[in-house]
Amino acid sequence: MSFGSIRWRLMLALVVVLALATATTAGLTYRAVLAETEALFDYQLSQMALSLRDQGAIAPDEARALADEQLDFVVQIWTVDGRSIYASRLHPTLPARAVLGLADVNVNGEVWRTFGVASEGRVIQVAQPERIRSRLAAQAALHSVAPLAWLALPLLLVLWWVLGLLTRPLRKLAADVQQRDAVALGPLPEAGLPDEVRPLVSALNALLMRLGDSLATQRAFVADAAHELRSPLTALKLQLRVLQAAPDAAARDEALAALAAGIERSARLVEQLLALARSEPGPAGHPAPLDLAAVARDALADLWPLAQARQIRLSLEAPQPLRLDGDRAGLFALVRNLVDNALRYGREGGQVMVALALQSDGSALLTVDDDGPGIPPEDRARAFDRFWRRDPGQGDGAGLGLAIAAAVARRHGASITLADSPLGGLRVQVKFSLQPDGAGG
Q1: Is the domain of 271 the same as that of 371?
Q2: Where is the Histidine kinase domain (predicted)?
Q3: Taking the C-alpha atoms of 70, 73, 74 and 77 in order, what is their torsion angle to the nearest 10 degrees?
Q4: Residues 99, 124: Cα–Cα separation, whole Å
Q5: How confident is the model over 161-172, as pLDDT tens digits?
Q6: CATH of the domain at 329
Q7: Which of 142, 196, 204, 228 has an alpha carbon within 20 to 30 A of 45's alpha carbon?
């Protein structure tokens, strides 16, 4: 297990907190027990002195007990005029005079804790070396805090076990993610997860769902593209064989023209497939401020040769700039495909009208009208499906123009609709939301 894991970090934090709490508790307990022990020793001094005062004379047996070298206490008795009449045992640093009550007396560097009391014609004092008192008090205080040290290791083990229980859902989640392959995009389980982790898992599940949709779209796109490319490639091979087998120059010219047309259709199909792939969900270009009217003018200029070839009057009505944030390449593909469809399916020698207008609600409306056969209302819902063509025998399209336009519109938060055109054909309208400043000049 890595030392950078949550379990180790929590363990380290709890150990630090536990150590600080233990040290604080031990310090306070040590000082409290030390003070209580000192008070108890003072009480013993006073009680011994008071008992000797009330007792009067010291019996021989008692005197021998008081003279024991192992006894920490020393009893001294003086007359009222200061003459020493009794000492339980000789000591080179014994206090030379009595001090009534509790006192600390320093004699030649030795500190004594004494208690003196006056009696009939004499003064009784009981003394104890301060170093002995301090040692005994410290030992008592240490004994009181020693259980804390003994409990440290069991507490650490309990903490490690508890942290293991708390982080088990995270480890299970990590193992679940690690065992998945590139196609296992089902949602991660959220049951039993801490509240702090559940939003992250919910976000990951939302991401997995988007990835699943994107992969499904990509797989469907590849399958459809492979199917659509098979027919033109087969046709190209057949046309090449016809060219190779042509018996004379006229037949060769006819076969060569058919081959050139087939190559042009295949190139356009590949171009549209690439445009569709770029417009599908996935990493998009960075939105940037642009003029939709300028994009539309560029798209129409690109299609002008096709309009001239079919003798179609192509017009653009864009009286003012319409500024929005978007992907210029995607919007160019949207306008180009809509106009390209109108030119290819419109009536030869007819007209195609493109208009851009600012609406009262602050949106921009792109309208493309043609005078072709149009699309019946019952088929308009399917018209945005990839590779769908109402009449496969009409025109040389691949059924991708409206699909590309719809995908680009979705990426820009725009809506696209189909209706009957005043010119007699199909009207396609795309509604965009503009920047807050609306149209600009």
Answers
A1: no
A2: 224-436
A3: -140
A4: 9
A5: 887 777 777 777
A6: 3.30.565.10
A7: 142
* Domain containing residue 247: CATH number: 1.10.287
| Tokens 């309009």, located at residue | 307
Task: Give the end of a domain, one of 255, 283, 311.
Answer: 283
According to DSSP, the residues that pair with 370 across neighbouring strands are: 352
Q: Which amino acid is at 150?
A: W
Q: Edge to edge, what strands does the sheet with 74-79 contain?
A: 84-87, 74-79, 122-129, 110-119, 101-107
Whether residues 86 and 225 share a domain: the answer is no
* CB of 111 closer than 8 Å to CB of 129: yes
SS (H, E, C) 281-315: CCCCCCCEEEEHHHHHHHHHHHHHHHHHHCCCEEE
What per-residue confidence (pLDDT) applies to 355?
94
Distance CA(120)–CA(143), nearest Å, equals 43
Domains in the chain, number = 3
Alpha-carbon distance of 167 to 8, in angstroms, equals: 11
Q: Are residues 34 and 85 in the same domain?
A: yes
* The model scores a pTM over 0.85: no
Residue-number span of the structural domain to which 408 is assigned:
285-433
Q: Which residue has the higher pLDDT, 291 or 118?
A: 291
